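Query form — protein 4-alpha-hydroxy-tetrahydropterin dehydratase

QUESTION: What is the three-dimensional structure of this chain?
INPUT:
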Amino acid sequence: MTEETANILIKRVPGWNLVKENDSWKLHQSWKVKTFAKGMEFLRLVADVAEGEGHHPDLHLVGWNNIKIDIWTHAVGGLTENDFILAAKINGLNLHNLLRITPTDK
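ANSWER: The structure tokens for 4-alpha-hydroxy-tetrahydropterin dehydratase are given below.
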């Protein structure tokens, strides 16, 4: 996928960012969860969606409450339309009860 196409598609997945790592484009997003257990639940929900899509993003629980997800298609070493579809499906998950809400989020 070209950078131009990625810049068009990124607008369809609010909250996600395009990042370039080792000459490959990836989708990235971070969240803060309420507790470690909520973080594990968050990752399980995302893993269920990803498995259903046959897609396997990099899922990270950093510290006790920081979730980071990177999506790209390993087989092509970069982004495909399927990566944006998975990001949209993750955005569609009901995760609000797991997330730590700060005053700036209201």
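ADDITIONAL NOTE: Residues 36-53 form the longest helix (18 residues).
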